[in-house]
Amino acid sequence: MTVLLLYTLIAILAPRWSSCAEELDGSGSGGEPSFYADVVIGGLGGGLGGLGHSGLDGVGIGGAQVDRTISTHSKRSTFTREEQNSVVRAQNIDWGDNWVHHLSAARIFGDQEDDDDNEQRRRGELRKRWDDDYEGDYGAGLESRQTVRNRTVYITFNTCLQPVSNTTDDHASSQPPQLQVYVSNSTSNKAPGPKVDDNVQYVLPVDMGFGRLDIVATGDIWVGVYAESRPSSQKTAWLENPPWNYEISLSTEEPYHGFSEDQFLYLVDTDDSTALLITGNMTEHSSKSGGVDETAADLADSLYHPYTMYAENRATTSRFVGLEKSYCAVRQLARIRPANSAVSRTTRGLGNFSKQQFHLRELNRSSEYAGYLARPRNKTTSDTSGILWRPVSLKTKTDGNCEIIYDLPFCSEVAYAVPSNPTVFGNIALKDFYDDLSAKWWKNFTYSLQQIQCNASNSAAYSLVRNCDDCSAAYKNWLCAVTIPRCMDHSSNLPYLAERSSNKLFWNNTDSAWQQHPFMPKLAQDEIDEWTSSGGWLKNGNQSMSRVPSRNTKIDEIVKPGAYKEVRPCKDLCWTLVQSCPSQLGFTCPRDFTWGKEMSYGERDDAGDITCSYLGAVYFLSAASRHVVGVWWLGVLAGSLALWASM
Read out DSSP for 535-592? Predict the structure, then answer.
């Protein structure tokens, strides 16, 4: 049986009863009966909707206090929340070790007064039965009644470090085994672990360094963490240090660690050294789309940045291979850290709701990265709790003449890489160049629109379904798009890209020299002459294609980025412009299957790839969400050839 808990898949290992618990063993210490109650294994780290808005009931951060009174096969740790320099210390474990953590009933129930006890107590019918989901024989036939108190305890586990392979191979054969976690709430099994055969215990599955189990406790809880034993000959495949290191938490308030398979981080675009990413909408109902629910008070604070981000170059040997679901591992081991990002809030994009954006810097060109969205519970170093989301893939560009700009004053919905030249413009000056041109041409358009009777009666209006406000919005979005084209590497072979300035060279303003691209050698005069006469990058191929300039000719005249390719505007955006404005303005769109249409407009991709450009676009947003965008605010890269030429 499965249930959906706060949009998180939870597998129920025992049936839930409103007023019963089940006797496991009546022969515990001192003849006291022992009970188990409902146990839930959470594969995704539920409770995302509430994390960060209520404090952790600190009943369990695994420390390193050893109790030598138990079997020599195990080491015991009580939950002391050890700290060193205000930082919680995680637990080390070596090959063959079995650490046992104990949480007492007194700490679970907090020595509640009678009134509180009454709220926690329920009368349960005690039955014995066989359940294939658990180890052990529960017997049959006994029924009795007894009053018990219970409370849900959230057990979460993160592997923070693991033995490092002697090789650079990232394959599973070179990775150490996952740690194993066992849970007991029976006094007959105070050292749960892999060698326990005749007592009831639960296995907490650990997947890529993360595990979670929710248990309704009626008494003490014991958790065993085991590192698989290997012969000395096999251990040589890994370095001696570090050993494994883990965090384990038992909380009566909410899960301490979390992992979500949902996507809540989206790639906007990359250039050769940076990437722009954005979260989903941050609202009071964000959990419905994979995020965490916010409060109105937090959203009102412009400096509220609850999310953070990490990244790892896929070409390097990751230090947390096999631990990609562990918040603790990614937080400590990722090479690209929060300090590498410029973080801000924006309402750009779908729905114009608040979002958090990350401008990730200091990346290598032509490299693939995995980007991890994370959300710490709070910013204090002594609190290591948080949620991790599944990674987003991104790849930086190669040629060096496309650069990301965003948060423009006038064209506020623009956020992507544009044709650039770092020897002519810095990032701020480049942003101003494009935005100022758009604002200048927008002013001219407003003069034309003033000639239209926008406030005419229905009988005299140019449309019964559109008005001048619709026309203004569509034109502004179109204007920003055609003035500020979305840039891709000229070296890219993606079929939906359009050639731009293929016979142009990159102007190195610093050295007063021409280059094919910023990372290529400077050219001598005879090489320049040969280049321009042969058609540039296209050589003696399609001469007409090689002469197609930038959509905005001032790019070639002032920026001088050289050859690049453009993500063409989506063709339906041109239709929206024509449909929204009066015919007197003369807007037209090229017909399908014509050269003009193929050079100017692209087609949308249902899978979420950006095969044509529109403002607010992000990679691999759900098809349903992108359809809403297409219907409601289609204002983006749009325009006809006639409008293109008029610039």
Answer: TGGGTTS-HHHHT---SSHHIIIII---SEEEEPBBHHHHHHHHHHS-GGG----PPT
The H or E element containing residue 160 is strand 151-161
For the chain, give me the number of helices (H) and strands (E)? 14, 35
How far, in whole angstroms, is CA 217 from its chain's centroid? 34
Cross-strand pairs, 41: 11, 213
C-alpha–C-alpha distance, residues 221 and 192, integer Å:
10
Whole-number mean pLDDT of the chain? Answer: 77
* Residue 87 three-state SS: strand
Q: Is the peptide bond before 242 cis (omega within 30 degrees of 0)?
A: yes
Query: pLDDT tens digits for 217-232?
Result: 999 999 999 999 888 7
Pick the closest to residue 483 from 552, 561, 577 (CA basis): 552
Exposed/middle/buried for 177, CB within 10 Å: 0-12, 13-18, 19+? middle
Query: What pLDDT, on the 0 to 100 scale, is given for residue 73?
Result: 46
Q: Are 552 and 437 contacting, i.e. CB atoms less than 8 angstroms apart?
A: yes
For tokens 């987003």, the residue is: 392
The answer to whether residue 19 scores a pLDDT higher than 60 is no
- What's the rounded Cα separation, in Å, for the pair 287 and 21? 32
What gap in Å lies between CA 262 and CA 7, rounded to an integer? 9
Q: What pairing do the DSSP bridges indicate for beta strands 265-270 and 275-279?
A: antiparallel
For 92, 123, 388, 444, the CA distances from 160, given in Å and listed in that order, are 9, 41, 13, 60
In one-letter notation, the amino acid at residue 539 is K
Q: Which helix (H) or strand (E) holds 125?
A: strand 121-127
Q: Would you mind telling me the total number of residues written for the chain in this entry? A: 647
Residue 416 phi/psi, 5-degree rounding, is: -175, 180
| Contact by Cβ (8 Å): 633, 620 | no
Q: Are 580 and 470 in contact (CB under 8 A)?
A: yes
Q: What is the pLDDT of residues 345-403, one digit of tens each?
A: 999 988 889 999 999 999 999 999 999 999 998 766 667 889 999 999 999 999 999 99
Cβ atoms of 128 and 22 within 8 Å: the answer is yes
Give the end-to-end CA distance of the chain in Å, rounded to a whole number: 64
User: Which tokens go with 441?
Assistant: 């041409």
Which one, of 418, 417, 395, 423, lies nearest residue 517 by Cα?
Answer: 423
**For residues 601 and 613, what is the distance between their CA atoms, to the nearest angstrom?**
9
Query: What would the pLDDT profile of 147-188 be if each residue is shown by its tens digit?
Result: 568 899 999 999 999 988 777 655 555 688 999 999 999 999
DSSP assignment letter at 90: P
The predicted structure's pLDDT at residue 480: 87
What is d(CA 560, CA 124) in angstroms, rounded to the nearest whole number? 79
Distance between CA 637 and CA 414 in Å, rounded? 10
Q: Which residue intervals of 204-266 are DSSP H helices?
A: 232-235
Architecture of domain 262-395: Sandwich (2.60)
Residue 209 · residue 326 · CB < 8 Å: yes
Q: Is the dihedral of CA 606, 609, 610, 614 positive or negative?
A: positive
pTM of the full predicted structure? 0.79
Domain regions of the chain by residue span: 2-259, 262-395, 402-646
Q: Copy the structure tokens of residue 57.
A: 């009931």
